[in-house]
Amino acid sequence: MEFDLHEDDAAFRRDLEAFLHEALPEDWEARSADGPGSEAQAAFSREFCARLAERGWLTPHWPREHGGGDASAWRHALLGELLWSVGEPRGPQYMNVNWIGPAIMQYGSEEQKALHLPRISAGDVLWCQGFSEPEAGSDLVALRTLALRDGDDYVVNGTKIWTSYVNHADYCFLLVRSDPESTRHRGISVLLVPMDTPGIEVREIPSVVGERYFHEVFLRDVRVPVSCRLGPEHEGWGVVSYALQYERVGAARYARAARTLDALAERARSRGQLGDPTVQEKLGEARAQCEAARVLTWRVIDQRAHDLPPSADTNVARVAGTRAEQAVARLALELFGTEALSHGSFADSQFRLAMTAGVAVGATEVQLNLVAQRFLGLPRE
What is the value of pTM for the model shown? Predict the structure, then answer.
């Protein structure tokens, strides 16, 4: 298997590295410590993404008709790896270009495409996703938020929880049950909802993960025009399934974990610990997990580059990425103990982000069930 970059992609990476050296402020490590949901990163992302867009680097893999550069899926993967390794300066906008935009391209009306895609490709809009609910969690199809038809509007009532990035979002990719008599996968719709719509209330959920990372969203008699529905009515599960195939490998967290691991190794060297065989073994194991996550993600990217349909490889890659993140976080604690939890340190940031890895984009247990069914062909009990 050939892992060397194509000459054009290698040149792109060099140019992007030079741009980052110039564009990121001197205090970027401190700004990015709380992850993409922090106040500092959300504010910086608009400026940063606009500069990326000027160079055609925000959505290089999108079709030209939608503001992209017709580049391959590999170009987008390289972009994501490098940006995540330095703390993801796109902030929440990484979701926009990775799966929200493609979902709108696939299922949106011409009016929806004209409204949303230019803003995403220009880097001047923030989105959040309204998926999880208090009594649904990772069992997404158990959602209860109702959207009942009233003429040309839906009237939405319900609650979403653990919603990231909502405190700055302009729009919400909202999952609702549009058929109150339906159950499980049937009767679900997707609405593209402006966050300034009357009846939406947002409350922060304090957590150790990071500043303004999680929120509850309360929807009370929120009127959403039917024209905001993405895809056919009651068939939103197909839209969500399509989007999730992009989302589960959209955040190259293994790249950030690998960079943290390099810093851990250097710190161990400076303390004279690198000669310890146990330390060497643990560093090697964590490195192997990071590289396994990278290769498994690349397998998914290669499938996309060859226009192959989504497969369970996506779920396998997601589990590998989660385990790599958590392995590096545990190693930081083992090597440096409580010092690794000093707020703002690279180890502290990695540890807090790793806490979310097992639940974001579907709990690891859910991913393992999907691997068992779709990859291994095991029966569902």
Answer: 0.84
